[in-house]
Amino acid sequence: MKKDAVSVEIKNVYKSFGQQEVLHDISFDVAPGEIFVLMGPSGAGKSVLLKNIIGLDWPDKGKILVNGLDVYESQGKVVMGLVFQSGALLNSLDVFDNLALYPKEHRLYSDADIRAKVMHTLSMLSLEDAAHKYPSELSGGMRKRVSIARALVMEPQLLLYDEPTSELDPVMSATIAEVIATLKEEINVTSIVVSHDRSLAMAVANRVALMHNGRIHAIDTPKRFLASKDDLIRDFMDPSIDPKHPRFREKS
Ligand SMILES: Nc1ncnc2c1ncn2[C@@H]1O[C@H](COP(=O)(O)OP(=O)(O)O)[C@@H](O)[C@H]1O
Ligand SMILES: [Mg+2]
User: Fold this and answer.
1) Which residue has better confidence, 144 or 19?
2) Residue nearest to atom 19 of ligand 1 (CA)
3) Same-domain check for residues 68 and 100
4) Do 108 and 52 fall into the same domain?
5) Residues with beta carbon < 5 A to ion ligand 2?
6) At 247, is the secondary structure helix, strand, or coil?
7) What single-letter DSSP state applies at residue 3?
8) Does the pLDDT at position 86 exceed 80?
């Protein structure tokens, strides 16, 4: 049975670590089934925002609602998946066991059901043949696909990706973009993708947000982002400028 994709509402969220304000008055909504790409230079606050959405951390001020429920109220009612930037696979387990770990530990399904779910998820990502390989035996692109598969086993209604194409070559990045777009067709999921990969954003996003210095600078469709006359958006979309370039930190 397919669950419904969920909405996300972020309302006036603030977050500081000590004296450093990392999120400043962040507000935006993501519609059920939407692919929302959050771009921005390193240190903009993207990963912190993702952690707040999934409930690994919480705002100092403001609200984050998933399907109208506060994140802590949504626990047990909404299934979320997070694809970590590092992949976070366990090297001592093969691919199958990396995927089966969470459902087994939480005794959510019978062994036969877990097996079926894991194999189905692997096949969605063309990873059937890798089921009994160890993470160290896989290419970077395969490892990313395994991390996506692991987040998918629980059939999430909300899927959050942190830099899914970082450290991948352009061909592998394009494959990941295809995976993200295909998943939207195959399962009913709302996706928030953090990335400074412009081609990924342009390929998969329904809408793009540019985050800078803890603030949302702009939110628009990929097409309008590409055509924008705004200086910061233009700099960010310019393929000749590295998003880690210090000039992004000089402006506000
Ligand atoms: N747990 C933490 N404690 C203190 N500072 C943090 C913590 N997490 C993130 N930060 C700081 O918050 C800022 C934004 O970080 P982050 O969200 O990781 O940026 P990015 O946009 O690159 O993902 C950075 O300056 C980072 O050092
Ligand atoms: Mg980050």
Assistant:
1) 19
2) 43
3) no
4) no
5) 47
6) helix
7) P
8) no
97 in the same domain as 13: no
The protein residue with its alpha carbon nearest to ligand 1, atom 6, reads: 17
Query: The domain containing residue 13 runs over which residues?
Result: 1-79+156-252
18: number of Cβ within 10 Å = 6
pTM of the model: 0.89
Which amino acid, 35?
I
CATH of the domain at 243: 3.40.50.300
What total of structural domains would you count in the chain? 2
Residue 175 pLDDT: 85
- Arithmetic mean of pLDDT over the chain: 88
Do 163 and 236 fall into the same domain?
yes
Q: How far apart are CA 179 and CA 244, in angstroms?
A: 26
d(CA 131, ligand 2 centre) in Å: 29
Report how far residue 16's alpha carbon sits from residue 1's, in angstroms, rounded to the nearest whole number: 41
Q: What is the pLDDT of residues 95-131, one digit of tens each?
A: 999 999 988 887 778 999 999 999 999 988 889 999 9
Is any ligand 1 atom within 6 A of the Cβ of residue 47? yes
